Each structure stands twice: as structure tokens, then as C-alpha cells.
Amino acid sequence: MVSLLLDVFKQNEMNHDAKIMVGILDSIEECVLIINCNLKIVYVNPAYAKILKVPRNRVIGRSLKEIEPAARIIDVIRTGEPIINDPSHIKSLKLDVVANMTPLYYDDSLIGAVAIFRNVTEIKKLNEEIFNLQELTRSLQKQPFASELEDPFNKIIGNSKCLQEILIIANKSAKTNANILIRGESGVGKEVLAQAIHDASKRSEKPVIKVNCAAIPTELLESELFGYEEGAFTGAKKGGKKGKFELADGGTLFLDEIGDMSPSMQAKVLRAIQFKKFERVGGNNSRFSDIRIITATNRNLEKMMEAGTFREDLYFRINVISLDLPPLRKRRGDIPSLITMFLKQLNSDKTLSAEALEQMMSYSWPGNIRELQNAIEHTNIISTNNIIQLEDLPKYVKDAKTSNYNLSEKNLNLSNLIQDVEKKAIITALQITGNNRTKAMSLLGISRRSFYEKLNKYNL
Questions:
Q1: In this protein, which residues make up the domain named PAS (predicted)?
Q2: Do the beta carbons of residue 296 and residue 256 sit within 8 Å?
Q3: Main-chain dihedrals φ then ψ at residue 145, nearest 5 degrees
Q4: Per the confidence metrics, is the pTM higher than 0.85?
Q5: Distance CA 255, CA 233 (A)
Q6: Are 92 and 52 within 8 A, CB to CB?
Q7: Which helix (H) or strand (E) holds 42?
């Protein structure tokens, strides 16, 4: 073949065989480029002209160094070594190509080089799109809901949709000064959420002061909140004492269990929130405090307003943003992650058996996360092995009825049986994969959409 190219190199009249060889090169769909040792282009095929959108007569006879000085085939001439499957970018044409470049020898002398390359610009773009889509998919798998959560909300354990929706609203609300009411049963983590809101706010450098309104007797709550002046009552400290409203100046005041506050105190707290001023007990001078109010309750404040035990005007002051934390029984799928977190806090390397985990996930958890934490502390102490067994669980959890079905004439409802098997399969898959939902859905062989529909259906 090389000898047949000599006529081409010398630009002589080609013989019959040389014409056949050139005809073959002309028919190749990939680009063919031949240069001599002086980097002069002696041949390009029609595919080259078509793909690179340049007439052949404008290329043949010119120096490649003038057209594309960074062309890799120049290195083949320089070194005499081939370059195989080389990805290159032709700057002048904005094309990406993959080329095989081979030196041409005749009588042991280097006479030039040939490059055969294909245009992979569209393939590269497609690969980039696929990569971007994969990155997006991985991002959505990490956070399957509306948006990525910022610190410290992404540290709150739980991927259930009902919790994530609340955290997204809390994340947005934290950036404002709006007063927030957190609702939820005892033990769902209202104080944890209040702390996260403060930490994510512009007031994070200032203190967050917490008051449990149900834990302080009514007669002492006023002095606790607003402070007192010296001599205000028997036993008052010399010089008086600052209250929580003063201590929280510039920061956040968290009033937990506000539904337990007496109507008389509600009126005083309403005035302090509305006008941002108050008087210490036994004092006449108004004091000002710039605070953000976060309240929490496990009571139905709407029913209390109807009964006249909670002030309507205070309700609307504290309820600018309402966050309803779901009970643990409505987000059972988060239980494995919570268990892992509590065991880690105990510096324990123990894990739960499949039977123990299934029982934990079947239990209703009326005390919510706080009850779960106590149960884990119990099992960690009681268990003598690295695997926590069913018998190690607290008696009230171990003896609780589960959703098991015994096949009998009284219980042969096929729909219920199928649902029970589905639920158990999901629980087992989550346990096997360490609560990795992507791996769990793969193990179950169902789509992402179907997986999350079933999590919501079974309150997992």
C-alpha cells in the first residue's frame, strides 16, 4: 500500500493499482488524512471534506501546521511512533474526534503519516448529557423531595416525605423573623426543630432561650419570663434578675408547651410580643427586647380557643408559620436510621436482628422519638450479644401486637395478606440495606415512584 502511495506523494500520474487504492480511501466513511514528512497535506478523502466542511482542493497542498498547529499527527512525524484511539479537539472547527495515526515507511525511511479519524462531537455531547442526568439522579436520590436542605436541617434524621416537607418549610422560614408555631405530639422533636431554626437564622450568633411553660408554676412564670426588680417579693435577689425575654435579646425565645399557659399570662405575653416591651415584676420601667418567638404545643389550640382557654389574638401572633411534626408511627421508614443514630450516640456497635427490627417498626410508639430512644438504651444494656434479639426489647414493645396474619377461615382476605407481605418485604429490604432506599428499591425490583407510594401507603 505504501508503495502505491508514492505516486500520490510525488503527485505523479497514478497507475491502475494506485487508482484502485485511492478509490478505496475515497469510499471510506471515516475521515482520512495523509501528510508527508514536511507536514504537507497530500491527500484527504471526501468524508474529510464533508465532515470538516471544507473543499478538498483548499486543503491538499497546504501545510497542516498552518491549518491545525496542535494536530497530534505532527507528533507521529516527529517520533515515528503510532498513536491509537487518540481523542482530540480540532479548535478551528470546534470538533471532537478520535483518531488512529500511523507513520508511513518506505525502504526503512519515514515518508509521512496517515490519520483515520471519526467525528465524535455529538457522541461527546450525548455522554455529557447522560453524565449530567446521572448526577441529577444521584442528587435526587440523596434528597428525593423538593429541594436540598441546608445545615442544620439536613442533620435531622428522616427521609420520609411528611417530615421532609416540614423541614423544607422550616428551612425557608428560618431566614425570616416570622414567629413560628411547632405542633406535634410529645416526643416528636419539637425542641430539636426549634434549635435548628435558630441555628439557621440570622440570629444564630445570639442566644436561644428555652422555657417549658408547663414545667413552671403559674405564680412563678411571670418572673421567669420578665424578670423582677429588687424587693419585688420576699426572697428576691439583690439588684433584681433578668427574665427570659431580656436574656433572649437579639436571639430567639422558645416557649414550649404554650398551650399550658394560663389566660392571665397569655395576655401579658401577647403584649410583650406585640409591642416588644415589658416590665419586670415589681417595676414600672418598660424594657425593650428584639426577639424572635418560636412556640410549641401538643394541644389543639383551635379547640381551646372555642372553649375560651386560649386567646385568639395570641394565637394569630404566634402562628405566622405553622409546622406540624408527624408522629413516628406515620414515618416508620425512618426508624432504622434513628436506631442507628441512638446506638452511635451510645458508642455501641450492636445491630438489631430482622425479627427485632420488624417488631420495632410494627410498634405504634405513642411516646414517639423519645420513647424509641429510651427503648434503644434499654436494649443496649439488656443485650449480651452484638445482635439485639427480639427477647432483648422492652416488654411493652415485645408484647405489642403486630400486623401478622394467621391463615384461617376467619382471616383469608387476599388483599390484606398481600399488603402485609409487601409491608414486611419493604421493612426487610430497608434493614438489609442499612436503610439505603435506593438499594432497597433495587432489591425489591420496583420503580422509585412505586417504592415511595408504598412507603406512604404503609406509613413507613
A1: 17-64
A2: yes
A3: -115, -160
A4: no
A5: 25
A6: no
A7: strand 41-44
Q: Residues 81, 83, 88, 90: is their CA dihedral positive or negative?
A: positive
Q: What is the mean pLDDT of residues 54-70?
A: 86
Neighbours of 388 (CB within 10 A): 25
Residue 71, classed as helix, strand or coil, is: coil
Q: What is the pLDDT of residues 400-438, one digit of tens each?
A: 865 444 445 455 455 665 677 677 778 877 777 777 788
| Structural domains in the chain (count) | 3
Determine the average pLDDT of the residues in 393-405.
75
Q: How confident is the model at residue 158 (pLDDT cuts 50, 70, 90)?
A: confident
H/E run at residue 296: strand 292-297
Of 300, 326, 352, which one is at a domain's C-terminal end?
326
Q: Which of 36, 19, 12, 26 is nearest to 106 (CA)?
A: 36
Confidence (pLDDT) at 224: 94
> 307 is in which domain, residue-wise?
153-326
Distances, alpha carbon 446 to alpha carbons 331, 425, 427, 439, in Å = 20, 12, 14, 11
160/459 Cα distance (integer angstroms): 9
- DSSP code of residue 258: G
Q: What's the pLDDT score for residue 454?
A: 82
